[in-house]
Design a protein that fits this description.
By secondary structure, this protein is mainly α. The protein has one domain: Orthogonal Bundle (yst0336 like fold), CATH 1.10.3560. 54% of the residues lie in helices and 6% in strands. The protein contains seven helices and two strands; from the N terminus they run αααααββαα. The chain has a two-stranded antiparallel ribbon. Helix 2 crosses helix 7. It is globular and about 45 Å long. One of its GO terms (cellular component) is cytoplasm. InterPro entries: PBDC1-like_dom_sf (IPR023139), PBDC1_metazoa/fungi (IPR008476), Polysacc_synth_dom (IPR021148).
Length: 168
């Protein structure tokens, strides 16, 4: 994943203002383009950190939240039929899928911090975050899918590719 300045380019005051703005309730804003840019930057930074993590550490050893076991168990009970290697956007975004995901997501309110924040999710787990390979999902969807990918060995391709690159 290409590194960019992100929040660092805002400076200390700008980053503090952004952090404060992002902590306010959504109804405090209309469709403010600057706020959308800040959310996009935050989602991008989260994606960059996560991809660097699965590139550097064996994904099977990662613990993403203190509730990984609970998230994974609920995910397997509700969504074990999803193709984790190559996600179909309709399985996250169609009207039927949203109805199926809503109760799953809401059960983690108060358990997983920022469970409903927007986050970037890779469609093909063997590839990096790119415009074509990325979808916007909630944080709990990201956790559920990535925990399942990590435990199932689906993210090993990313880790192994980085390890081979370093050995060359």
């Amino acid at each position: 994943m290409a590194s960019r300045n992100g929040l660092a380019s805002l400076g200390v005051e700008g980053a503090s203002a952004a952090a404060h703005a992002l902590s306010l309730p959504a109804d405090a804003y209309g469709n403010d383009p600057q706020l959308e840019v800040m959310w996009a930057m935050k989602a991008y930074n989260h994606a960059e950190i996560y991809f660097n993590l699965i590139s550097s550490v064996d994904p099977k050893l990662l613990k993403l939240t203190k509730s990984d076991d609970q998230i994974h168990s609920a995910y397997m009970e509700s969504f074990s039929d999803l193709n984790l290697e190559l996600l179909d956007p309709d399985n996250l975004k169609s009207a039927e899928s949203k109805e199926r995901w809503r109760p799953f997501c809401n059960q983690f309110e108060g358990i997983v911090e920022d469970f409903n924040y927007g986050t970037l999710l890779r469609l093909d787990c063997r590839k990096d975050y790119t415009e074509e390979n990325t979808i916007f999902a909630t944080r709990i969807q990201f956790y559920a899918i990535e925990i399942a990918r990590n435990r199932g060995g689906y993210n090993d391709a990313v880790y192994n590719a980085k390890s081979k690159q370093e050995q060359s």
